[in-house]
Write a structure and sequence with these properties.
With 255 residues, the protein is α+β, with helices and mostly antiparallel strands. 21% of the residues lie in helices and 27% in strands. The strands form 3 sheets. Strands 1, 2, 3, 4, 5 and 6 form a 6-stranded mixed sheet that branches. Strands 7-10-11-12-13 form a 5-stranded antiparallel sheet, with no helix packed on it. The longest helix is centred in the middle third of the chain and has 17 residues.
């Protein structure tokens, strides 16, 4: 596996700072090289905070081919179409594949979890007094982990000796079109597809995104996003029937 072929992300378990505020560290590693791309001391798992972290990371390091995560917030959303979140839809929109581990199988992200154990031991016990001081500890840990700690699996090299930024630069959202579909439609803020006077409930995580629709039979329409066929709707019932989940947890090797 090459650098940036797969990034792994998760929140290390929250812990209490000296000022009695909870800290939720968001971490991202490069799977092939073990390079710790970021560890951000955040005050919650809010989606907008994660957007900010990943956008900065994409600007600095380029885009990975895939991102692996668990099924928790903000990487997934329990009640949305295919359990997608707005963050996951943004990744897909950027051409990044999403990998989800099976629920209750953290060993499928084992390499990342082992880093978390070291992070917990060296940078959170005892916790710092506030977010600024805790972030300074995380930054020091990143420096040591990447530049001073050789790994046997890397031939006793440090991650910094192998990792290199992605050649897929981040330039914002690319244009999207659907030349093989009958129409392109922007999903409404409330998550609907509007076709004439008919309104079909789709998913709010796709709000503002462009989807392609194609009539495959009388009043039966296929809905696609990017290269993914998501489901069919009938103009009479105005109900979306999802296809098999293309983003569901896969049987991943323990790593």
């Amino acid at each position: 596996m090459a650098p940036n072929e797969l990034w792994c992300t998760d929140y290390k378990g929250e812990f209490l700072l000296g000022n009695h505020h909870y800290c939720y560290p968001l971490t991202v590693t490069d799977h092939a090289t073990r390079y710790l791309l970021t560890c951000e001391a955040l005050s919650s798992t809010r989606e907008d905070y994660a957007f900010t972290v990943f956008e900065r990371l994409f600007k600095e390091r380029g885009l990975p081919a895939n991102i692996r995560s668990d099924n928790g917030v903000p990487f997934a959303s329990a009640h949305s179409l295919f359990n997608l979140s707005k963050l996951a839809v943004w990744w897909l929109r950027l051409g990044i594949g999403i990998e989800r581990i099976k629920p209750g199988h953290p060993q499928q992200n084992g390499r990342h979890e082992r880093m978390h154990l070291t992070l917990k031991k060296e940078a959170t016990k005892p916790a710092a007094a506030n977010f600024l001081q805790q972030q300074a500890r995380f930054d020091k840990f990143i420096d040591v982990f990447n530049n001073q700690r050789p790994h046997e699996a890397l031939g006793m090299k440090c991650p910094v000796e192998i990792y290199q930024p992605s050649n897929r630069t981040y330039t914002g959202l690319p244009d999207i079109d659907y030349p093989l579909h009958d129409r392109t439609i922007v999903v409404t803020r409330c998550g609907r597809i509007c076709l004439g006077k008919k309104k079909i409930n789709f998913s709010t995580v796709f709000a503002g995104q462009v989807v392609g629709i194609k009539e495959v039979h009388d009043d039966i329409w296929l809905v696609s996003f990017m290269d993914y066929d998501l489901g069919y709707f009938d103009l009479e019932t105005r109900v979306l029937e999802p296809l098999e989940n293309p983003f569901g947890p896969k049987v991943l090797p323990m790593s």
